[in-house]
Design a protein that fits this description.
Helices cover about 15% and strands about 20% of the residues. It has about 70 residues and is an alpha+beta fold. It has one domain. Strands 1-2-3-4 form a four-stranded antiparallel sheet. A hairpin with an 8-residue loop joins strand 3 and strand 4. It is globular and about 40 Å long. It comes from Nonomuraea monospora.
Length: about 70
């Protein structure tokens, strides 16, 4: 189990303004944590650094865009 009590979350610069913010913590060795700023005591996603880098690359490449999602079988 990961101890996130020392995580220092900051708002992502890509979140923009308003209430729909993503916060990240990069101060834990080898880990990147992500949470919803509206629910700081809620769930936290934990990534290794390579996993997070792959996720960010996928976002930049629009791999999660609705147009790129495979069709679901009926």
């Amino acid at each position: 189990m990961i101890d996130i009590s020392q995580a220092e979350f900051r708002k992502s610069t890509y979140s923009g303004s308003g209430n729909n913010c993503v916060e990240v913590a990069t101060n834990l060795p080898g880990m990147v944590l992500v949470r919803d700023s509206k629910n700081p005591s809620g769930p936290v996603l934990a990534f290794t650094e390579p996993e997070f880098e792959a996720f960010v690359a996928g976002v930049k490449n629009n791999e999660f865009d609705e147009l790129h999602r495979p069709e679901c079988p009926e």
